[in-house]
Design a protein that fits this description.
The complex is a heterodimer of chains A (110) and B (115).
Chain A (H helix, E strand, L loop, with lengths): L3 E3 L4 E4 L4 E7 L6 E7 L6 E6 L4 E3 L2 E6 L4 E6 L8 E8 L6 E3 L3 E6 L1
Parallel strand pairs in A: 2-11
Antiparallel strand pairs in A: 1-3, 3-8, 4-5, 4-9, 6-7, 7-8, 9-10, 9-11
Chain B lengths: L3 E4 L2 E4 L5 E7 L6 E7 L6 E7 L5 E2 L8 E7 L2 E6 L8 E9 L4 E4 L3 E5 L1
Parallel strand pairs in B: 2-11
Antiparallel strand pairs in B: 1-3, 3-8, 4-5, 4-9, 5-6, 7-8, 9-10, 9-11
The chains are: A mainly beta (110), B mainly beta (115).
């Protein structure tokens, strides 16, 4: 089983739709969780951290479920500019090693 | 905010040549930098952790003699792909923790194509 798993997609959604991605992790000792966005052949950019209490940043909401070992990202009112690959990132153990999921590709269409 | 600069952005080279990639932290000191490799439609895979003033720590399966890492100063780490072959063609990205909140910042990546 992979340490961090994501559905690769692609998810094709119309503009204005609400879309959600999940990411599961295998190590119950994982400490920190993030969502990154990566555009084609560009570096990943931090979208948001994920906290146990859940957190929201504008149209984006992230949730963490430690019992089931998954995190989620919800995008409301999706824009064309949201088209990208969304990477789930987990920090394990000592805090320096990041493990990336394979990413979920989102395509927002007119 | 903290910025990480990576050069070159892309390299095309002949098989057997060596390629050096530089990663600089521009406005902060980074005692630790990370090197990743990403093949098309795959996730970023950590290759090694670069430690200033000491040897790099390589992940399992990464050849340390092929991927030479030097972290001579607090703001510069280099990755040299020695005797590159077509299977080394990939997207290489560096990152470093920095800023007041120790967030992880990425370089812009280097697309290496070995002919």
């Amino acid at each position: 089983r992979k340490e961090v798993e994501q559905d690769p997609g692609p998810f094709n959604v119309p503009e204005g739709a609400t879309v959600a991605f999940n990411c599961t992790y295998s190590n119950s000792a994982s400490q920190s969780f993030f969502w990154y966005r990566q555009d084609c052949r560009k570096e990943p950019k931090l979208l948001m951290s994920v906290y146990s209490s859940g957190n929201e940043d504008g149209r984006f909401t992230a949730q963490l479920n430690r019992a089931s070992q998954y995190i989620s990202l919800l995008i409301r009112d999706s824009k064309l500019s949201d088209s990208a690959t969304y990477l789930c990132v987990v920090i394990q153990g000592g805090g320096n090693k990041l493990t990336f999921g394979t990413g979920t590709q989102l395509k927002v269409e007119l | 905010g903290a910025v990480v600069s990576q050069h070159p952005s892309w390299v095309i080279c002949k098989s057997g040549t060596s390629v050096k990639i530089e990663c600089r932290s521009l406005d902060f000191q980074a005692t630790t930098m990370f090197w990743y490799r990403q093949f098309p439609k795959q996730s970023l895979m950590l290759m090694a952790t670069s430690n200033e003033g000491s040897k790099a720590t390589y992940e399992q399966g990464v050849e340390k003699d092929k991927f030479l890492i030097n972290h001579a100063s607090l703001t510069l780490s280099t990755l040299t792909v020695t005797s590159a072959h077509p299977e080394d063609s990939s997207f290489y990205i560096c990152s470093a923790r920095g800023g007041s909140n120790e967030k992880l910042f990425f370089g812009s990546g280097t697309q290496l194509s070995v002919l």
